[in-house]
Amino acid sequence: LEKLSSVTPQQYSKNEQYAYWVNLYNAITVNIVLDHYPVKSITKIGGLFSFGPWEQEVITIDGKKLTLNDIEHRILRPIWQDPRTHYVLNCASLGCPNLQPMALTADNTNVLLEQAAYQFINSDKGAYLTTNKLQLSSIYDWFKSDFGTEEELFKHLGHYRPDLSHYKGKLTYEYDWQLNSK
């Protein structure tokens, strides 16, 4: 984290900046969990009236103190506007997409975004389909604006999992906040 905090991201290409911010977010998250381990859920980390560490100033970049929410909601989501970002940000919870096996780089970002999207959408925590119901991750509900209308969401899901392209049945959302200690 010390090395990442000494970087001035603006000096790099857009692809390098994206990889930097995703890697920084994930490294901070892992570090926070390790600092508080053992803990049952990342939501238990933080102040008395907080829900997790997302609003805590956790790093200074280019002279600015940032929170995890700043990185996700003020940098990554609005600047890149790519819903696949949700598949590579890890919040250390069982309901979250898996941490990728390697850091993102300018060269591998698109491959890892596609891989992460495919893996999550084809996992039960991403989209669990039974004969009469589809249970999606709450990520799709919390970040509706990133995935678009319900029709656009199902087009997105169907790109990675064709059986979801034209789903019209009952839809529910679920998320497991238990710590993913793997």
SSE layout and pairings?
Elements: H1 2-5, H2 14-36, E1 59-61, E2 64-66, H3 68-80, H4 85-88, H5 109-121, E3 127-129, E4 133-137, H6 139-142, H7 144-147, H8 150-160, E5 170-174
Parallel strand pairs: 4-5
Antiparallel strand pairs: 1-2, 3-4
Helix pairs in contact: 2-3
Radius of gyration: 17 Å
Uncertain runs are none
Tell how many strands the DSSP assignment holds.
5
Count of all domains: 1
Strand order of the largest sheet: 3-4-5
Helix share, percent: 40-55%
Question: Which descriptor suits the 3D outline?
Answer: globular
The proportion of residues in beta strands is 5-15%
Protein structure class: alpha+beta
Q: How many H/I helices?
A: 8
Average pLDDT, rounded to a whole number, is: 95
Largest sheet: 3 strands, mixed
Distance between the termini: 21 Å
The string of secondary-structure elements, in order, is HHEEHHHEEHHHE
Organism: Vibrio genomosp. F10
InterPro entries: DUF547 (IPR006869)
Domain DUF547: 10-121
GO molecular function: kinase activity
What does this protein look like?
- Keywords: Kinase, Transferase.
- It holds the Pfam family DUF547.
- This is Ser/Thr protein kinase.
- InterPro entries: DUF547 (IPR006869).
- The chain has 182 residues and is an alpha+beta fold.
- Helix content is 42%, strand content 10%.
- It contains 8 helices and 5 strands.
- It has helices at 2-5, 14-36, 68-80, 85-88, 109-121, 139-142, 144-147, 150-160; strands at residues 59-61, 64-66, 127-129, 133-137, 170-174.
- The protein starts with a helix and ends in an 8-residue tail after the last strand.
